[in-house]
Amino acid sequence: MTATVPPLAEVASSASTLRAFLHGLPGVDQVGADQRAAMLGTRSIKTTSKQWALDLAIRMVDLTTLEGADTPGKVRALCAKARRPDPTDATCPPAAAVCVYPSMVATAADALRGTGIHVASVATAFPSGQAPLDVKLADTRAAVKAGADEIDMVINRGAFLSGRYLEVYEEIVAVKEACGDAHLKVILETGELATYDNVRRASWLGMLAGGDFIKTSTGKVQPAATLPVTLVMLEAVRDFKAATGVAVGVKPAGGIRTAKDAIKYLVTVNETAGEEWLSPDRFRFGASTLLNDLLMQRAKMATGRYWGPDYVTLD
Amino acid sequence: MAFEYAPAPESRAVVDLRESYGLFIDGSFVDSKDGEPFKTINPATEEVLAEVVAASSADVDRAVAAARRAFETSWGRLPGRERAKYLYRLARIIQERARELAVLESLDNGKPIRESRDVDVPLVAAHFFYYAGWADKLKYAGFGPDPRPLGVAAQVIPWNFPLLMLAWKIAPALATGNTVVLKPAETTPLTALVFAEICQQAELPPGTVNIVTGAGDTGRLLVEHEGVDKVAFTGSTEVGRAIARSVAGSRKKVTLELGGKAANIVFDDAPIDQAVEGIVNGIFFNQGHVCCAGSRLLVQESVTDELMASLKRRMAQLRVGDPLDKNTDIGAINSAAQLARIRELSDAGSAEGAEAWSPPCELPDRGFWFAPTVFTGVSQAHRIAREEIFGPVLSVLTFRTPAEAVEKANNTPYGLSAGVWTDKGSRILAIADKLRAGVVWANTFNKFDPTSPFGGYKESGYGREGGRHGLEGYLA
């Protein structure tokens, strides 16, 4: 196991050192974290700063479809949306990525070739992760081979909750290796981890094991992304950067539906991890319906009138 | 790329200020007999907001007489359930006019609109709602089978939470059947005068609440007045002492809520990120103009470096400026006099060898401003560790053991509040038990609730305000 960054190289040398390290992290007071997130949610972002934030949020969207009913046609439509979210306005930026199941990766890669929009695939027996490791690794390799340059994996929550941190760690390291050059997003499924202490430990675990991003949720479990959970994860990436010099991204996913919510997340990024994280390389939104609300708000800012939902495309 | 927050000013249009205000006596605004007018200004811009008048001896006589009349003929004779109706009505009108009150409070005091909107005014309404509930249940409050009101209450309040301190004073007084003559601080009289309008709107019997404006002289006339049965004061320990002397030997019942120099104790197992929030909220909330502010940070030595790094990073995020901007975290210092006091103590801190640090922040040219400041290398002997600064200035001291933390925390003439930060529940209870402070917050700071009693040990005063305990000071 060599993925651990140098200053913390010894941390994962055994189950007991890893456990000692994760349990030695400062605790999170839930009431305080909730209050801090609520306070950040009261920031008033208007006029020029709102325009700027809306465009940034659009550039951070991982436009996602993860349904049993997904078809190549549906995925191609989503890719078209990612390239030109607002067909009436050439100044509207594209989305960051399209996120699909492995079976749809080839279609998405084909539709997005040459656009600079990333092809993200969930893998590792998403969303439960309840499959043998070799199946998870094969899942990952297949997605990368089909053209995915970002892999969204799920951690083994069963192992995490029973305290087998090293097992979780080793799985992430193995998946990272299977990714090759593809970026790895580590889904913590915070709705199943339940406590903020667990969220902080899982965040560090994901970063220590070499994740390029840590991601809140699959979107298949409630609660999915929340502002306080994202706050705790942003504190973790900030502290990890300070300790190791390595910057890891954060992706809240699931349940972020309005532009107003998205801006609250951007404010939280700005006042927690700092402006370095205000980039699609460091922060993403996993969402499907969010993009349309961002577009409607963007048009409202530009024209002074509210479009209404009939004027944005439903894909 | 930097995320610049565009100005998001709250509109002033909701506030309808008169050019000048009289005194509110016996249910109506009246001119002073022979008082001197003075101006109240916006401390963020030094712009004059309105002219008010310093009530004279004759004015105070009139106000106390009106309160006496109301006690004997109207308010004092109402059954508790009827008093409750009026208090509920006041609470509802405060909620209806919340925006107006919040903007006016920020204009006159300099506090950020986020605070007046989200903390002060909601707490004001909550206080009236809470004590409205007690008005018809006093028999069951634990103060005897038939507790009686005292009569006329003289109430003198400070400028740091003008409307909230008014609520802390007036709500329990009215709930228990007393009538009131209240003097707001000379730099922040305006929300009290709007509250007087609210009393009219609620059709409170004339004389039940009287508001006399003015400075220390008016306050002295009021608390020393022969017709007063009860004195309630919130303010400096120095003035509190003078009041205690002046009422000694009289029939007047007194509650005093005075200064503080609270210790905020952070143990090495504290939730660091939330502790930093609590430290910031403890000392920079309301520009540090808080008697229970966590102005002495006691940090366990083993986490001092880590904590200070986090604290400085967090302080650099604080947004200092226009109080009416919805994104402002720290507003203006309330007055030139207070700014001079903060500067004097801050200079003394540097002169005595402590090291000051402030984040880079641009302060407006006009108005009264002081950058958030933290002093490290502070010892118990330094003035900034002993005297109440009442500004955005934090003194950091360290400790090695829990016993040393308690010893240092208690080593002050004050005893209003304290904070404990640790993940260990048993330690919270053990330390809180040993701290000689009226309020001890655990893993939080500066949290207020009308149901919770508040008040000091030692030179921080006596009597309790808030909660069931807050009734006692107004009952015989």
Indicate the structural class of chain B.
alpha/beta
Alpha-carbon distance between the two ends of chain B: 64 Å
How many domain modules of chain B? 2
Strand tally of chain B? 17
Helical residues, percent of chain B: 25-40%
Q: Which CATH architecture of chain A would you pick?
A: Alpha-Beta Barrel
Q: How many beta-strand segments of chain A?
A: 8
Whole-number count of domains of chain A: 1
Largest sheet of chain B: 7 strands, mixed
CATH superfamily of chain A: Aldolase class I
Question: Total helix count of chain A?
Answer: 13
Q: How can the largest sheet of chain A be summarized?
A: 8 strands, parallel
**Main sheet strand line-up of chain A:** 7-6-5-4-3-2-1-8
Return the average pLDDT of chain A rounded to an integer: 96
Mean pLDDT over the full residue set of chain B? 97
CATH fold group of chain A? TIM Barrel
Low-confidence stretches of chain A: none
- The assigned CATH architecture of the largest domain in chain B is 3-Layer(aba) Sandwich
Overall CATH class of the largest domain in chain B:
Alpha Beta
What does this structure look like?
- The complex is a heterodimer of chains A (315) and B (476).
- Chain A is an alpha/beta fold.
- Chain A has a single domain, classed as TIM Barrel (Alpha-Beta Barrel).
- Helix content of chain A is 48%, strand content 10%.
- Chain A has 13 helices and 8 strands.
- Chain A has helices at residues 15-24, 30-40, 47-59, 72-83, 105-112, 133-145, 157-161, 165-179, 190-193, 196-208, 227-244, 259-272, 290-303, and strands at residues 61-64, 97-100, 118-122, 150-154, 183-187, 213-215, 249-251, 285-287.
- In chain A, α4 links the parallel β1 (61-64) and β2.
- Chain A is globular, with a radius of gyration of 19 Å.
- By secondary structure, chain B is α/β, with parallel strands linked by helices.
- Chain B folds into 2 domains: 23-258 and 459-472, Aldehyde Dehydrogenase, Chain A, domain 1 (3-Layer(aba) Sandwich), CATH 3.40.605.10; 263-449, Aldehyde Dehydrogenase, Chain A, domain 2, CATH 3.40.309.10.
- In chain B, 38% of the residues lie in helices and 16% in strands.
- Chain B has 15 helices and 17 strands.
- Chain B has helices at residues 57-73, 80-96, 98-109, 113-134, 162-175, 190-201, 216-223, 237-247, 272-284, 304-315, 336-351, 383-386, 402-410, 425-434, 469-472; strands spanning 23-25, 28-30, 37-42, 47-53, 152-156, 179-183, 209-211, 230-234, 253-257, 263-266, 296-300, 355-357, 373-376, 393-399, 417-421, 439-442, 461-462.
- A 7-stranded mixed β-sheet of chain B has the order 12-13-14-11-10-15-16, sandwiched between helices.
- In chain B, α2 (80-96) runs antiparallel to α4.
- Chain B starts with 22 loop residues before the first strand and ends with a helix.
- The chains are: A alpha/beta (315), B alpha/beta (476).
- Chain A binds chain B through residues 26-29, 31-33, 35-36, 42-50, 52-53, 56, 235, 266-267, 270-271, 275, 278-279, and chain B through 1-8, 114, 118, 269-274, 277-278, 317, 326-327, 423, 443-444.
